[in-house]
Structures are given as structure tokens and as C-alpha cells.
Amino acid sequence: MSDIVLEIKNLTRRFGAFTAVDALSLSVNAGEVFGLLGSNGAGKTTTIKMLTTLLPPSSGEARVAGFSITTQAVSVRRCIGYVPQAVSVDGSLTGYENLLIFAKLYDLPRREQQARIREALEFMGLTADGGRLVGQYSGGMVRRLEIAQSTLHRPRVLFLDEPTVGLDPIARDAVWKHLVDLRANYGTTLFFTTHYLEEAKSHCERIAIMHLGKVAALGTCQELEASLGSGGHTLSEVFVHYAGSALDSGGNFRDVSAERATAQRLG
Amino acid sequence: MTATFIHPLARFVEKTFVITEFELRKLRHDFTELITRALQPALWLLIFGQVFSRSGMMHTGNIPYLDFIAPGILAQSVLFVAIFYGINVIWERDLGIVRKFLASPTPRTALVLGKGFSAGIRSLSQTAIVYGLSLLLGVKLNWSPLALVNVLVIVVLAATLFSTFSLIIACIVKTRERFMGVGQVLTMPLFFASNAIYPTDIMPGWLKVISHLNPLTYVVDALRTFMLADSTSTFGLGLDYAVILVTTIILVLIGARLYPHLAT
Lengths: 267, 264
Hints:
The complex is a heterodimer of chains A (267) and B (264). Chain A contains 10 helices and 10 strands. In chain A, the strands form 2 sheets. Chain A has a 6-stranded mixed β-sheet with strand order 6-7-8-3-9-10, sandwiched between helices. By secondary structure, chain A is of the alpha/beta class. The radius of gyration of chain A is 18 Å and the shape is globular. Chain A has helices at 44-51, 73-78, 95-105, 110-123, 139-151, 169-186, 197-203, 221-226, 235-243, 253-266; strands spanning 4-15, 18-29, 33-37, 59-64, 67-68, 80-83, 157-161, 189-194, 206-211, 214-219. With 264 residues, chain B is mainly alpha-helical. In chain B, helix 3 (65-82) packs parallel to helix 8 (145-173) and helix 6 (108-122) crosses helix 8. The longest helix of chain B has 29 residues, at 145-173. Chain B is globular and about 55 Å long. The A-B interface holds A 49, 52-55, 74, 77-80, 82-90, 92-94, 97, 101-102, 104-109, 112, 133, 149-150, 153-156, 258, 261, 265 and B 1-4, 6, 15, 18, 21-22, 25-26, 29-30, 94-97, 99-106, 260, 263-264.
């Protein structure tokens, strides 16, 4: 059995009377591509915020690479990378500068910084554009730069919150090609949320479907499809079965407007 | 994963300067900001200063009124630019930049102080402008290197202080609309309840009390002492520096506690 790199036990987050994440428990193996699915407001982003130490849990615990997110937050931060849903590179700096600042913040040895940045730009197909201002990049290039930035320090786990939202199919494929290469070369565990079921199906080893803050279903894509009984069910049927019809949920105003703003900036 | 273990204090200083460096790199790509910063002090000195100077209504002792307000206008222009600094913080929050920084192992105090310092260094351009205008208007300036260094240090500290105050407001109100409202409401009282354009002696008692609680008053007093050829400090330079430094440290510590709330 492979090593467990992410272990979540009864993780709960309440906002007043509302429980966004409700006693979530699951574990992710090292090197696994794990997809967290669910409709808007299901608790996906809140889960990622807790795992990346941005939001303290109300109760429960999680360990990332062996470190507790509540008592060893700084150690957790050293071994994770995080690509938020919204644009997280600075448009008023060049691609190279965006990488350099993170190389410095993550304490990459000075003599390795330049080589690491060059490698990251090359890996993400951005070598020719490193000296350009990020404000002039296309949406797909921005996402690739964000992934390069979040993986410069070779994190054990990379958290991605809807990494392909707002991208056209070609840019989406390019992002995934780089993510797959990243895992193949560095063994990075990928933990991501998405709305695109076909993306989850083609890239994830396992999928968790969240509904109202809980894991409604967990398994490989085949297992989930088989869980509805015989008859060749598709992943989208599985999604509707476990996550309910999308009409009754939908997230709050801020979630939806943030997502649309991101799509607009990248598109 | 790469980690080097260095002393926490050295780490804090290093990361503070990394944040400052990158804020300043943005200027290299777009320096129009430095030019727009010149406009406000020019208007105040050339129009307000000249008119009031002619009126002879202000009694500023043995110092001509224009000389008296030149350091006040420098302090004011530093305040006015720094107080809206929080709008950048809100912009970075609406994007994912704040979250990405907070998910990195960078100390929170370094994130806050680094941004504050960058606002401080940007304000140096206003110092150059106010000196240039003062020279044109015949203000008697103190050109001793020691005095000049002190002016630069005070300007950087003052901008750090007020931009960190602005960051705190941004962390509390979180939206641009509310921030603009609060920013407007705060700047004028801070400015008028200070010794920037009139001496505190002529203020009514209640205003004098407020002005003595206002850090801008101490910034102006220190600037006036160092900038002008023959001016003495009202409160003593030791007290001026102490108030500015202690207030900045307290604000940075509060800012570092509140900044992570922007990501939640």
C-alpha cells in the first residue's frame, strides 16, 4: 500500500449556524490524482482553505505530509503548493519576477534559483514569455505560470481549486498535460476541485463527490459508475444522484461572482 | 521541498525585504504613479500656501508661513497617498494573490511590514517634489546631510505607519466601496487635527487634545525640525521618533493578526 500524504479526520467548519464542511474524513495516497467534485456551495473550497492552512477548522484534524494543519501550519505550508481559483500571479510583474519572488519566499538556495526558474518556465512552455508582463498573458498561460509558481519548491501536495475554470478546451488540455507531467517527474500529489466531470474522469485516480459538506460518494470513476447498479451509468448521472439536482444549491453570491470574475479574467 | 533553517529574526528581515523588493519592481514597469504623486503637494504649496501666506492670517512665529507649511504639506501628501494603500490589498484579495502569499511559509509580519516599507520608499518621490517646490518658493531649507537623512527616514516611517493603518482598515471592511468611504472619512480629520497647516497653539482646547493623540502631528513636528533651516521641535525629537516608531510597530502587529482574515 502506498504512503498516505493527506489524512483528513472529522474535519468540520462552521460559519455561525451554517456548517460548510461536516465531519469530512478521507485519505489521499502519495502521488495520487484526487478530484473533489460537488456543486457550488458543497464545501469544496472551504475544505481546500482548511488544508492549505488559510482557514482554521472548527473541529477535527488533518495531516498533510505528516504535519498537522492546526499545530504545525508553517511546516504544512513548506510542503504544499496552492493554486487558488482566482488569478494569483501579479499582472504588473513579469513571469520571471513572479517566479523569483516565490523562489525567495520558499528559501530556495540562491545558487539554485535561476536554474529552477528556467526549468519551471521551460516545463510550463513559457520560456519565450518569461520576460513579458503577466498582464499581457493569455488565460492558459496565466494558469500555467501559477502552477509553475506553486511548484517551484517541489511540494509534496499541490492543491488546485478549479484549475481550468474559464479556459477554452485547448488551454485546458495544455494545463492538464503539464499537471500530468509534473506528477510523472516529481511524484507530486494532485488534489483538485472541479466542475468538469469529463476532466475528473480522464485524470483522477479517485473521486470524492461532496454534498452539503459531507462526502456523498468516494471511489474510482468505475466504482462510482458501478455504484448506481448495472446499466452503464455515466459519471454525470452519478454526480446528479449523489450531489442532488444543481438547482437547490448553488453557493452564495460571493462564490458565484468570484468564479465568474476569474473566468472573465482568464477567458 | 527545500528548506533552510535560519534564525527567525534574520528570516523575518529577509522576507520583509523580498516583499518590498517586488512591490518596488512594479514601479520599474509603470512609473506614472510617481508623477501623479507630484500633483497634490504642488497644488497645496503653490495655491493654498501662497494665498494664505499673503493673507498674513496665520501667526507662525519667526518662520514665514510658506516655510511653516512646506513640511506639513510633505507629511500630508505622504498621508493622503498612504491612506489609500489598502485598496491594493483589497484588489489582491479579490484576486487570489493574498491567499497564495498566506499559503506560503512567509511570516505574516514580514508580509505586512514589507508592503508598508514599499509604500514608504514610494513616498520618497514626494519628498523630492516638495523639496523642489520649496526651493522654487524660497523656503529656507536645512541642507545638512544629517538633517536630510532624518527627513528621509521619517518620511519612510510615516508612510509605513499610515499604509499599515490603511491595510488594517482594508482587512476590516474588505470591500472597495466601504474602504473608499472610510478612507475619505479618516484622512481629513487626521490632516486638520494636526499641526500640518497651522500651529496647535491656535486650536481650541478639545482639538489640541486630539492633535496630541494624532501621530501625524509628531511626523510634522519632526519633519519641520529637520527640513527648515531655523526651526526647533515643539515636542522634542525623542518623543517624535518614539511616537512614530511605537505606533508603527503596534500597527504592524495588529495588521499581521488581521491580514490572514482576508483569505478566509
